[in-house]
Structure formats: structure tokens, C-alpha cells
Amino acid sequence: MTAPLTSPLPGRLAGKLRVGCIGCGRMGGAILFGLAARKIPGLTLCGCNRSPEKMEPLAALGVEAMPGIPELAAKADLLILAVKPYQVADVLAAARGHLRPGTLVLSVAAGVSLDRIAKGVGDGVAVARCMPTTTALVGKGIFAFCFAPGPHVEEWRTPLLELFGRLGLCLELPEEKFTDFSALIGAGPAYVFAMMQGLVQAGVTLGFPHAESRRMVGELFAGCAALADGGTAPLMQLRDDVCSPGGLTIAGVNVLDRAGLSGLLVDAVLAARERGREMER
Ligand SMILES: NC(=O)c1ccc[n+]([C@@H]2O[C@H](COP(=O)([O-])OP(=O)(O)OC[C@H]3O[C@@H](n4cnc5c(N)ncnc54)[C@H](OP(=O)(O)O)[C@@H]3O)[C@@H](O)[C@H]2O)c1
Question: Which CATH number applies to 11-174: 3.40.50.720, 3.30.70.20, 3.90.330.10, 3.60.15.10?
């Protein structure tokens, strides 16, 4: 059974988990914001960001703005690295030496391997990777996790998945599937927003005011997601249920099929995976 979103953390973390985040931009900010909004008893949140003004909206939610990486590294039980991949080495160098044994360093940096992070933090520190989505901001994130073998990892696996379970769906994947996951799900919001934008544009073309078109299309996606999620019906059947023979919808769907929408989406994901692999090399 899923724990209520605001219930205390279970087990060894109950009443005493300090989560710190280095880099509070789009992704780090989304995770901290999502956790802060849930007001989980016993959870303390802190962060630091190169440009301090990004901490202001988070501080308003109770996230403590720390003066620098050493102070944050010394304080956090769970330290999230949410800087750009090319900044990870410098950040780890600044944190190393301040981390306590048993701390978990969780990197969300795309393409930075467990091995690289583990070498950067030194002995006695547990290491994991997470590939998140920005939808964590609204408690609808999708998170892939993998763990480096090490002495404290087993203590962290369940509580970490439980904590991030408050922000959405958590999966454990082998590290070699991370690029596939990034291409399909990490990049996913961009594909979905592109489709939404196209339909909003169609609404405006039909004469609906922009705001109204956007509101309707937003509800359409939310409703379809709920319908697809709640049932076991194949997606093709859900699609066909809307298409009356000889009707208006099938005329529109035929255009999408002729343009090869499904094939285009597959190609987009494969292109993203290829680029991800290039970036890892
Ligand atoms: N955005 C996504 O959808 C997404 C999805 C999956 C994974 N990720 C991963 O998440 C990570 C962050 O991406 P992002 O999109 O959130 O980038 P971002 O918005 O640029 O955030 C990175 C933040 O790190 C801060 N920073 C850089 N160096 C720092 C330092 N030494 N100390 C403290 N803060 C520092 C930056 O501060 P400034 O304000 O000074 O630049 C910036 O706010 C990346 O590794 C990316 O691969 C992102």
C-alpha cells in the first residue's frame, strides 16, 4: 500500500533525514520544491546554488540556504547532485572530505557513471544515480534509480525509493538502461509538450482564444492520461473507441497515420538515445 504523501518516513529515517541538494536549478529545484510541498514530518531540506537568488523561492518553502558545498556536504544524510554533468567533478572535489561515512550521494546528472561518482566521493560513502523528470515538481515524476555496490547501499535502497515515491513513480533499472530511459522518459516532457503545442496551435487556427485552447488541450491530456492509466484496454482500442465509422475523428487520425506519427516518435526516441550515447563517450 502507498504511504500517504505527508506521513512520516519509515524505519531508520523516521524523524531525522536531512536532504541537501547542490545545484537548485530546474531539476534540483523541482525535487526540493516537490519534497518541501509535501511537508513530510522529520524531513529537513537544505541546498546551495551558485547564484544565490535561486534559493529564495525555496527558502520561502522552508529549505535552508547553505553558504557553500562544504557546509552542505557536512550536514546532509542524503546529498543530491543536480549540477550540469560537466560541473560534477568540481562539485565532488569541493564536497569530498566533508562527507560523513554512510551519507548517500545521489547524482541526477545525465551520463555521469556510478563509477565516476564513487571515485569522486571516496570510501565509506554510498552512491546512487537517479534519472528524474521535471514532472516531479507536481508530484508526478518518474524516477529511475541504480546503486553502486558498497557497504551502506542496502540501508539506503528502501528509504530512498520510499522518499522519492512521494514525488512519483520509482523504478530500479540497471545502469546500462539509463540512456534508454533518458531518451524515452527523461526527454518525454519535451515530446508531450510539443504535441500539446501543436494542438493548441490548431485550436487557435480554429478561432479559439489562445488561453482557452491551452486550457482545453491541457485537460485533454490529463483526461487521456487518467483514462489510459486506469484501465487495461489497449491504447489502440481507446483510440478506435473515439473513431466512429465514416466520422470526423477518423478523418483526422488518417492524416496522423499517413504522416507516420508513431514512427516519428520512435525515431525521436532513437535519435535522443544516439545523442545520449555520444555524450557519454
Ligand atoms: N532538466 C531536466 O529535465 C533534467 C532531466 C534529467 C536529468 N537532469 C540533470 O539534472 C542536472 C541539472 O540540470 P538542470 O536542467 O536542472 O540544470 P540547471 O537548471 O542549469 O541547474 C543546475 C544548477 O546548478 C547550479 N550550480 C552550478 N555549479 C554549482 C556549484 N559549484 N555550486 C552550486 N550550484 C551550482 C547552477 O547555478 P547557476 O544558477 O549559477 O547557473 C544551476 O542553478 C543535469 O546534470 C541534468 O543532466 C535534468
Answer: 3.40.50.720
Whole-angstrom Cα distance, residue 281 to residue 275?
A: 10
Nearest-CA residue for atom 30 of ligand 1: 50
Digit-coded pLDDT (tens) for 156-203: 999 999 999 999 999 999 999 999 999 999 999 999 999 999 999 999
Helices 188-205 and 261-280 cross at an angle (nearest 10°) of: 140
Per-residue pLDDT at 115: 94
Give the pLDDT confidence score for residue 220 in this predicted structure. Answer: 98
Please tell me the residue having the least CA distance from ligand 1 atom 21.
25
Choice from 21, 24, 27 to test ligand 1 binding pocket (greatest atom count within 8 A of CB): 27
**Atom 32, ligand 1: residue with shortest CA distance:** 50
Spatial distance between the Cα atoms of 244 and 246, rounded to a whole number of angstroms: 6
DSSP annotation of 12 reads: G
Candidate from 49, 113, 145, 181 with most ligand 1 atoms within 8 A of CB, to mutate: 49
In the chain, the percentage of residues whose pLDDT exceeds 90 is 83
Ligand 1 pocket member 132 (CB < 6 A): yes
Cell 547564484 appears where? 51
CATH class of 188-280: mainly alpha
